[in-house]
Amino acid sequence: MTEPVASPEDPWVKVESVYSDNSQDPDDEDSDYHQESYKESYKDRRRRAHTQAEQKRRDAIKRGYDDLQTIVPTCQQQDFSIGSQKLSKAIVLQKTIDYIQFLHKEKKKQEEEVCTLRKDVTALKIMKVNYEQIVKAHQNNPHEGDDQVSDQVKFSVFQGLMDSLFQSFNASISVSSFQELSACVFSWIEEHCKPQTLREIMVSVLHQLKNQLY
C-alpha cells in the first residue's frame, strides 16, 4: 500500500517549514551578544584611556604655567594694562623669556666683575710681595736711604732751573708784535737751551740748594 505524499498545500507542511526557517541555535545568539559587548567595552576603554591621558597632559601644562607665574617675578607684578585679569599663556611665556634674558645679562655682568676682582687680587698680591721685599731689605740695612731727599727738594731743583731760564727769557723776548715775539723765542731757545747751557744752570742750582740744606 502506497503512503500518501504530503501536498505542498498541506497546512502542516507550511507550519513546519516556517518553524524550521525562523529557528536559530541559542548558543549562536549568546556568542554574537558577547562579541558585541566585548567590542563596545574595548572601545569604551580606549576612549576612557585617551580622555584620561589628555586630561593628565592638560593638568601638567597648567601646573607648568602656574609654576612659571610663581617663579618669574615679573609675572607676579600687576599689569595695569590688563587690570585684574588672569595672565594669558602667551604673556606668561613672554615674561619668562624676558626674565631669562635678564638673568643671562646679569650673569655676564657678574662674570666680568669677578674677572676684574681677580685681576685686582693678583695686583694686590704682587704689591704685597714687593712691600714685603722692601721691608725685609730695610730690616737688613736699617741705615740705607737716610740720604734720600724729599719731594720738596726735587721741586726746589726744578724751580731753580725754571727761575734761571725765565730770567734769560724775560730779558731776551720782545713783545712789540707777535711776529717779533716768535722770532725772539726761537733765538732764545737756540742760545739759552743748549745742553751745555742747561747743564751749567743745573750745576749752579744744585750747588746753591746743597748749601741751603747743609
Automatic annotation (TrEMBL):
Keywords: DNA-binding, Nucleus, Transcription, Transcription regulation
Chain spans, region Disordered: 1-61
Domain of life, per lineage: Eukaryota
Positions with biased composition (Basic and acidic residues): 32-43, 51-61
InterPro entries: bHLH_dom (IPR011598), HLH_DNA-bd_sf (IPR036638), Max-like/E-box_TFs (IPR052207)
Cell compartment(s), UniProt: Nucleus
Annotated BHLH domain residues: 45-103
Name this polypeptide is given: Max-like protein X isoform X4
Species the sequence originates in: Echinops telfairi
